[in-house]
Structure formats: C-alpha cells, structure tokens
Specification:
The chain is an alpha/beta fold. It is about 30% helix and about 25% strand.
Amino acid sequence: MLISDIAKELESWAPPAVAESYDNVGLLVGIPSAEVTGVMVNLDMTEEVIDEAIEKGCNMVVAHHPIWFTGRKRLNGEDYVSRAIMKAVKNDVALYAIHTNLDNIRSGVNRVISDRLGLQYLSFLKAKDEEGNIGSGMIGMLPDALTKEEFLGLVKDEFKCGGIRYADAPFEEIRKVAVCGGSGSFLTDEAIRRGADAFITADITYHKYFDNEGKMLLLDIGHFESEQYTAALIVSYLSQTFANFAVLNSETVTNPVKYF
C-alpha cells in the first residue's frame, strides 16, 4: 500500500478541484511512492497527533484541517506549525489534508452534522453546480417540530457543546434547520432566504449575529464541536475500501478552546 493509493482513494471521494480557492488540500508532506504502514485520522495535524501516529506505527496522518494555508519562508521551530512539519519530515510521516473539498460534497462534513440531528429531505444550502452535486452547507427538516429549548438541548447534547452562543428570533418552534461546519456565517443570508428556522455554524463574530434580522436562530456551537465527527467519517470511508489495513481514529483531542 502506497501513500498515493490512499491519496487517490480520498480524491475520488472528495476531488481537490471542488475545494475553495484559498484552501491547501492534498498531500502536504511526504513522498507519494512511499509505502504506508498505517493511517492516523484526526480533525487536525498537530505535533501531538503526529506523536500518536508514530507511537501507533502509522506513517501517514490524514486530517480535515491543513496545518498551513499559505507559503512559509522558514521552518525553524518557532511556532507549532513549523514544529509539526519538521517532526513529520524527520520521522517520515506523510501529512494529507481533505478540507473544503470534503465540506462541499454530499457525503461530507455537513451530511454528518445533518445526520446527527436527524434531518430529512436534505439539500445543499447553496449549490455550486447545476447538477447540485457540489455546494456549501446543508438544509433539511427535523422529523418533528421542537420548541426552542428542546432544539437547543438537542444540539448541545449531540455536539457536546460547552455552551451555545446564539442570536434569538421571536418564534417558539423549530423545524427547518440549516447547517455549515466550521466558519459558515457567510451563509446566513442564504439560510434566511431558504426559510430556515435555525442555522447552526461556528466562528460567528459579534456584528454577524445581527445578520439573523430576528428571522431565525443563529447558533455558534464552536468550530471543533461542529466538525468533531469528521475524523470518524474519514476512517469509515477508508476502512470500507482498505478493509484489512490499519486506519485508526486518533485519540488526541485537538480542540484548543476550553470552557469555564
């Protein structure tokens, strides 16, 4: 099994061409023709994740978030990014990122979020092609309407939130729900246009909370919390294709945000 075999399979699922222009996806570190001893999957590719991979005999880390996006002028250990890259190179650990290309496909990140909530009749919140095979976010219906309190409780329980920041709206029942893992506040207007009662995302800044215009609940559940099930999704996909090969879900929790 080669690094290129893993990369090819991931790219047949989530083609790099559907990633956003700012993104940095694919094989970031490593030689495609090198043999793979095992794959470690995490949301992030930090030093701690690389250490775990080495300890468990995996020489390839697949993560949702790339550890860097733009060009770097030096690798000198002065920050966590350069230290992680240097550790990976020194220990022959390949680093592969599957980021917004996994966000933008039907069976990707937002499908997992929708499934956790039991949403039905799913479609992209904002389609990016005429066929509707590529898009941002998702929108669907809860099986039954919930009160705001019930809905917030469901979200908190399913995503293990330390807390939920949200902008309120003057109605009591929630049925139509839009979601976007990670930083999705750019889709707020689209969620309103599509008639969502609530929109779940993360990384909402203060002034963006006003964008809900009192027309829907606008929830920030945390970036890590919204995407925490992504690693399990990747593990499941690779394990189906490479049934007798070691594809491990990392035990390292990389969320840097704590709640008091």
